[in-house]
Inverse folding.
């Protein structure tokens, strides 16, 4: 079972080396690692070139945003299982080995997710963020999240979905998972922490700088899933689904109550420990 991992890189030099090292240090024999950089000017390409003998393929072509860059990476991927890692995130040790085991044990699944550590800009652990049991209806009501750095999917599910929507500049990963589900992909969840998702002042999640775009995305994704516009009663259903989400995942509720929400929480200083991989 061959894994293809794509990292999109653009002016994230201060985090990029940790991301690269977290992939090339995986204890798994068959990983194809693809790095896409459309034109960084902050020294990122020097870092990529330094590790080039450990990277399977490098794409230095210009692209039309992150989703387009990911599509370019997966266009040349040859693995059976795909995953993508942002240049400011990391894989935890043995994650690919665990993901491969999960796919072997559950060959009926097309997408498998684990949970993620939330890291600050210094690489310190702020909290754990849990992936949810995926359902289209929960996603439509804004109550389902899959941690991107801890999610892997079969190549056929990716290609059947049509890949990433290049017009989506805020939630391209979430829309991909929806498109996969709409094409019949089956999702599974592993109760283990597989990745590290970094929140910092320049990240979309930490800065909330794309609030307007994210709200538009939520409205569009509701229509895509439900095949209708949102009505007043849907606001009540959103509350019901959110309550159900917390009841099903008390550990996730504890993390939220103890450490606050992930979105916009770049200043959270509740640090648990330092991450030990990729150093």
């Amino acid at each position: 079972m061959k894994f293809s991992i794509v990292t999109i890189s653009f002016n994230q030099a201060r985090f990029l080396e940790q991301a690269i090292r977290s992939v090339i240090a995986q204890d798994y024999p068959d990983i194809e690692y693809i790095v896409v950089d459309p034109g960084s000017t902050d020294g990122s390409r020097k870092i990529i070139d330094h590790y080039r003998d450990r990277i399977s393929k490098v794409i230095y072509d210009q692209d039309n945003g992150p989703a387009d860059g990911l599509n370019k990476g997966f266009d040349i991927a040859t693995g059976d299982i795909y995953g993508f890692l942002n240049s400011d995130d990391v894989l935890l040790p043995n994650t690919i080995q665990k993901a491969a085991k999960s796919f072997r044990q559950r060959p009926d699944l097309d997408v498998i997710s684990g949970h993620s550590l939330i890291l600050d800009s210094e690489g310190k652990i702020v909290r754990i963020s849990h992936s949810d049991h995926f359902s289209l209806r929960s996603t439509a009501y804004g109550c389902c999240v899959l941690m991107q750095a801890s999610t892997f999917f079969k190549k056929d599910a990716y290609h059947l979905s049509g890949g990433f929507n290049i017009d989506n500049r805020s939630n391209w990963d979430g829309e991909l998972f929806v498109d996969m589900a709409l094409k019949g992909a089956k999702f599974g969840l592993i109760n283990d922490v597989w990745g590290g998702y970094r929140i910092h002042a320049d990240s979309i999640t930490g800065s909330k700088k794309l609030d307007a775009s994210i709200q538009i995305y939520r409205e569009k994704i509701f229509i895509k899933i439900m095949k209708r516009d949102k009505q007043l009663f849907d606001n009540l259903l959103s509350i019901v689904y959110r309550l159900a989400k917390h009841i099903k995942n008390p550990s996730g509720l504890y993390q939220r109550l103890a450490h606050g929400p992930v979105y916009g929480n770049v200043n959270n200083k509740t640090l648990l420990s330092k991450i030990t991989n990729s150093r």
